[in-house]
Amino acid sequence: MALDGQKTAYKYIGTTPDRPDGLDKVTGRARYGADISMPGMLHGAVLRSPHAHARIVKIDASKALALKGVKAVVTRADFPDGLDGEDWNLQENCMAGEKALYDGHAVAAVAATSPLIARDAVKLIEVDYEVLPHVTDVDAAMKDDAPVIREGAADFSVPEGLHPNVVRYFDSGRGDLDKGFAEADLIIERSYTTEAAHQGYIEPHACLGQMGEDGRGELWVCTQGHWFVRRMSTAVLGIETTNIRVTPSEIGGGFGGKTTVFIEPLSLALSRKTGGKPVKMVMSRNEVLRATGPTASASMDIKMGMTKDGKITAAHGTFRMQGGAFPGAPVDVTTMLAFANYDIENVHHIGYDVITNRPKQAAYRAPGAPMAAFATESTIDELCRELGLDPIDTRLKNAAREGTRATFGPKFGPIGLVETLEAAKTHPNYSAPLGPNQGRGVASGYWMNWGGETSASVAISEDGTVTVSIGTPDIGGSRASMALMAAEAFGIPYEDVRVNISDTGALGVNEPTHGSRATYASGLATIRSAEDCIGKLCKRAADKWGIDPEAVIWEDGCAKPSGPNAGEFPPMSLAEIAGEMGSTGGPISGHFEDSPAGFSGSFGTHVVDVEVDPETGRTTILRYLVVQDAGKAIHPAYVEGQFQGGAAQGIGWALNEEYIYGEDGRLQNPVFLDYRVPVASDLPMIDTVIVEVPNPGHPYGVRGVGETGITPPLPAVANAVREATGKRICNLPLRPSRVLAAIQGKG
Amino acid sequence: MSKQHITATVNGDEVEFLCDTRETLLDCLRDHAGIMGVKEGCGTGDCGACSVTLDGRLVCSCLVLGVEADGAEIGTVEGIAEGEKLHPLQRKFIEHAALQCGICTPGILVAAKNLLEKNPDPTETEIRYWLAGNLCRCTGYDKIVRAVMDAAAEMREAS
């Protein structure tokens, strides 16, 4: 009766039906974070530090509190002392304590009867700052004379003698580097930098919090993970986790940046202080860019050796990354994945996590991977050029495959890097003719994916439909994927499946929609919950027929006798069993709880053609191809969407996007006009090829696909610009001024 | 500060509200008229999530003051469908998977509808430049542009 083993023939999987939430989203009815209101609601606003680093001497809110309509002001004094570790980091980031640590750091928050009054009140709060020396650059922050952001922030991993701003240290590798480099016919060493990029979700953070004097309450919020919001918000407030019930709204993009909290604990604290009035808080774009987490910036040194025929003999990488004023730059992942595409015997990585006077970094799509890919895939491209080797053939020669011991340790199971390279090689884009000032770039990338805590329920409804309840917010069409997997598991039409994203009161703990885990983990949970239901459905049929439940099978949405020996009974459909379940034993539902560990990584290979204007240095993307392993594409249109979206974000990071800090330590471009994400006229159609090397750890073979796609574009674009201009530019972004300087020999 | 009494037509219906002179049309539509399909992504006219038509002209409602809307005809995403019948653009956006998170979708639909009213047969490049004021961070625009082209083709055939 259970669906043992992996399916290979599908009725619904691989089709592209309309998404269940599509209608709401094209009619303006879908409710996002800022769209939720409550009777008696107040509006919150935040006062933010204009200084990169300053001691907070005194906060005087008396004038703000005297303004008509102002109901409460909170500062750090309203939050408990005694937190440690990441809880303290979160609290300190949500509301500054002794010092403001970056431009945009929250210093106080106000609740008032209208958004305008709240904003006016913020301006009336008087803060005495003692401005301190600051540092925003990763290399500068490691120098002896750099200002110390915080003493004692470093953990046990940091060797003695390093600056206190180095807070974590990583060192890993294997083999014999000297031997490896001695075997090389060519060794190339280069230093690279990438700038901090913001996730750039179009929906600013928004929430509506309500908490009474008893410390119990509710929170409505746009988030990738409401159990994370519950745990983090209550930790910051020093109350029990389950005191707060968190309901996720529709979410207007996240890309990793909505897996943590910023304003959520503030709205709850303000609400409590007003005697339990709901407080809505909505960030401005300026606040999003200044005070929420972009990704880390990186400074990297790479040394790689290759033989004449293209075998990589040794690789060494040093990665210095700053993730703002708190530990957490994803340099651990950067070191893990730097050379993970390849089978390399001699490899060594060193990583430094460095704190600076910038906002606390947050996860951004494949956190840590794109920077490393830029450095290593650019170096490989340079090796191929100097040795006269084809970049795809060379990657094929070195590619990790099933059984390869990864550069970060474990042996790979079935993976699809070779398949993506082969598909890229035969794609027409790889042989399209190029004109003057045009160039082609190739790069591969990897993300290891994630399982994570997962809890789901599936209920049979009396009308013969099934309702799937999951805990991972739908950020890119995953409700359609869940419905497809449930339809497949039950053998019922897609239209007969309803999918809910449940609040924290309705399911056990779920990690966020992060790590490319939702379709893998919530999908697996949906299938397993459906199988749990199917067992119970079969038993109802068996009871009715008076035969052993083991003699009943489930096929095409119906319970059937397993064979002639079981008896002659007409099939009983799900709808028939559901229609009478009230009188045959009551409701039927299935559940699944686990931290599924059968996730498997996704490799991708991108091919991009660019044209560089020699007079302005502007780079135009002519063609773009994404080839990536999806394991099994549940809803191929949304898989393509992930590929295309990842590529577009990577192109933005490669060409235009960067956090620019002034000498004063202030962010110079906290507005979309100047923080320049790609617009429609910047991009061509983005061609996609879905490779399917099934993941044995998922019933239908799913691999997460969300993150890998942002990893290859940085080096692919840089490699294409290298071919178009003859210049290797090792610093992103490749903004026109930088490319022009390189063309003119000034770079 | 005294508020202004504003009367405007939104999606064909008369709407009245009291508006602080500092409030934008975006604020007024959302907070005073309950038109929540208009989204704020930036507040500086860079992202297009708040796109509406003001007397037929495509504008970012975050760059228009509420008081400027007195007597105006405003069109939002809520007015694109005709009763139960979706506009072809709305159908094609769903069909082509032209949205992921969907926050930019209302603004893009308003902008695309405005384009097709002026130019029923736009090229891919014309669509890309017309929509260059509407940021989408999820899709890379590919499926959005295809959906607009497909809707335009269907509308031409039907007319």
CATH topology name of the largest domain in chain B, in short, is Ubiquitin-like (UB roll)
Main sheet makeup of chain B: 5 strands, mixed
Please tell me the overall pLDDT of chain B.
Answer: 97
Cα-based radius of gyration of chain A, to the nearest Å: 27 Å
Strand portion of chain A, in percent? 15-25%
> Could you name the CATH class of the largest domain in chain B?
Alpha Beta
Termini separation of chain B comes to 51 Å
Oligomer: heterodimer
The largest sheet of chain A has its strands arranged as 3-5-1-12-9-10-11
CATH class of the domain at 412-444 and 600-743 in chain A: Alpha Beta
Describe the structure.
Chain A is an alpha+beta fold and 747 residues long. Chain A contains 20 helices and 26 strands. Chain B folds into two domains: 4-79, Ubiquitin-like (UB roll) (Roll); 88-158, DNA polymerase, domain 1 (Orthogonal Bundle), CATH 1.10.150.120. Chain B has a five-stranded mixed β-sheet, sandwiched between helices.
Salient structural properties:
heterodimer, A: 747 residues, alpha+beta, Aldehyde Oxidoreductase, domain 4, seven-stranded mixed β-sheet, five-stranded mixed β-sheet, 20 helices, 26 strands, 23% strand, globular, B: 159 residues, Ubiquitin-like (UB roll), DNA polymerase, domain 1, 2 domains, 5 helices
What's the topology here?
The complex is a heterodimer of chains A (747) and B (159).
Chain A (H helix, E strand, L loop, with lengths): L21 H6 L14 E7 L5 E7 L1 H5 L3 E5 L10 H10 L4 E2 L5 E7 L2 H10 L1 E6 L6 H5 L23 E9 L2 H7 L2 E9 L11 E6 L5 E5 L4 H12 L6 E5 L15 H10 L5 E4 L2 H7 L5 E10 L5 E11 L8 H7 L8 E9 L14 H19 L3 H8 L18 H10 L11 E10 L6 E7 L5 E5 L7 H13 L6 E5 L16 H28 L6 E4 L2 E4 L10 E2 H6 L1 H4 L4 E6 L7 E11 L6 E11 L6 H20 L30 E6 L21 H13 L10 H8 L4
Parallel strand pairs in A: 1-12, 10-11, 14-15, 18-19, 25-26
Antiparallel strand pairs in A: 1-5, 2-4, 2-6, 3-5, 7-15, 8-13, 9-10, 9-12, 13-14, 16-24, 17-18, 17-23, 20-21, 21-22, 24-25
Chain B lengths: L3 E7 L2 E7 L5 H8 L18 E4 L2 E4 L12 E3 L12 H8 L9 H14 L5 H7 L11 H17 L1
Parallel strand pairs in B: 1-5
Antiparallel strand pairs in B: 1-2, 3-4, 3-5
Helix pairs in contact in B: 2-5
